[in-house]
Amino acid sequence: MRIASPLEEWQLFSLLTIPQLAALLLQLARHVKLAAFRKHLRGPKKPAPQRRTDKRPPHVSTARLITQRKGLPLSP
After folding, report:
1. How many angstroms separate the CA atoms of 7 and 11, rounded?
2. Residue 30, H or E segment
3. Residue 18 — pLDDT band, cuts 50, 70, 90?
4. What does pTM read for this prediction?
5. Would 65 be classed as within a structural domain?
6. FRET partner for 55 with CA separation of 20 to 30 A, picked from 5, 8, 26, 76?
């Protein structure tokens, strides 16, 4: 911060107690316009793509098919 402003301007803060400094910082923060620091407004969300329905039968694991062909019971 010494680069941004001279050391003399910071001497005021060194004279304050911690509660006084906290109260001063809160008072200053109340007057800050946050919109001035916003970089970019968020645009509207894009709609979710519609799910395609597949006409083919659903996927079945190879292990399940082999088990069924052997006539073994399916494990849970």
Report:
1. 7
2. helix 18-30
3. very high
4. 0.42
5. no
6. 76
pLDDT one-digit tens code per residue, 32-68 = 998 888 788 788 999 998 887 777 778 888 988 888 8
CA–CA dist 13, 7 (Å, integer): 11
> Do the beta carbons of residue 67 and residue 74 sit within 8 Å?
yes
Model confidence at 26, pLDDT cuts 50, 70, 90, reads very high
* Residue appearing with tokens 């894009």: 46
In a domain, 6, yes or no: yes
The three-class DSSP label of residue 6 is: coil
For residue 37, how far is the Cα from the chain centroid? 18
How many domains in the chain?
1
Domain span holding position 6: 1-35
Residue 8 lies in a domain: yes
